[in-house]
Amino acid sequence: MKRHLHSFDYDKQDPSLLLTPPMSITLVIHIILMATTFLFIFPLSIIRVLQKQTNLYLLGTGFALFHIGYFAGHRVYGYKLSSFHVHNQPYVFYLVYVLNIFGICYKTTKSDFLWRAHRFLLGLFVIVPLLQLGSGMTASLGICQPSEVNNCMAHFGMGFAFIAIALLGMFTKYQQDALLGTILFFGLLNTIVTHRWGTKWSGRDYQHTVSGVFWFFGGVLGLIYRFQKVINPFPYIVLFVEGIQMIFHDQNSTYAWVVHIMFGSTVLFASSIRLAGLYAKIDTQLLVDTLWILCGIFFMGGNSDAIFKLKNSDFDPGSYVMLLASGGFAILIYIQFMNYLINGRIEYQRLQSFSSEATLDDLEEGKFEIKNEI
């Protein structure tokens, strides 16, 4: 197997990675139009569909801006055409067309099959453009080069997992299952694929393998107690210990060390608060989910290409951490904005700290029973 995902020497990296292509006006137009279309116009259109209201004007506006942004993006020069963002763009293009065709056909036929297919495509439409926007961000910044794609996949994969766990905690009752699944998955991943087989292991090989074994065993314990009528602390114990490990995670760059310390400290803080809230019967949902989002942002920001570029710039580590945290807050603002558009008010749909049936009214009435909850 190739080298360790995190075995990265920042002093031996290709200096050409420092050369980020210039930000042309057509690229700026492409970014603004695509972000506006996929983060605001199309989501608002989907909301109106689910509320059984007309979305023709929104859909037409989004369709027009999407095409302008698409062709503006293809006129940008200086960016490598081998990027994942460029290769994936046609599939997003086809998805937009197929989704609209299914919607029009359903309106004319009222077919139950077309409605189910349309809803399935809507689900894809929530996920795929976000991945495309993320890959576009990496392409415009010149990070996640082919030589470091595994490192980027590891950092962005776990980062998105933390953000998804936060979203599930805000609006659904499935955060426990998602957290356990994430722990089990990354436990197996770290144990099996993030070290070198058949060669002498380095200290980092041992670090990630031991971490993977710990995550897997902790995930199995959490899965066992998931079906018992007791408070299940094991997922948060796993993350608590992982936070400590990340704080002391050896790095060969001060820049990377600072980012990993912030990630580890945030994981440690979030898991501690969650454990305390469970046993003290205190609502910690907003604080903990905010910290999960920050964890995801910090971990994504620790990818090797980004650290290498910043290490050779005048941007200090403290400012970089604050910039990443600002991105986390921007995500929260966007989430609550969409929540307000859907529900007409800004609040969580449930209180994960209490029972799975708890609502805001239950909290006000003093119903604090804990039922098989993380």
From TrEMBL:
Q: Show the stretches that span the lipid bilayer.
A: 20-42, 54-71, 91-108, 120-141, 153-171, 178-197, 209-227, 234-249, 255-279, 286-308, 320-342
> What are the Protein YTP1-like C-terminal domain coordinates in residue numbering?
183-338
> Mind telling me which InterPro entries this protein's record contains?
YTP1_C (IPR018827)
The record's annotation in Pfam families points to: Ytp1
Q: Is the keyword Transmembrane helix assigned to this protein?
A: yes
Q: Which residues form a coiled coil?
A: none
Origin: domain of life: Eukaryota
**Which controlled-vocabulary keywords does the entry list?**
Membrane, Transmembrane, Transmembrane helix
Q: Which PANTHER family match?
A: INTEGRAL MEMBRANE PROTEIN (AFU_ORTHOLOGUE AFUA_6G12730)-RELATED, PROTEIN YTP1
What is the protein name stated in its UniProt record?
Protein YTP1-like C-terminal domain-containing protein
Source organism of this protein record: Boothiomyces macroporosus
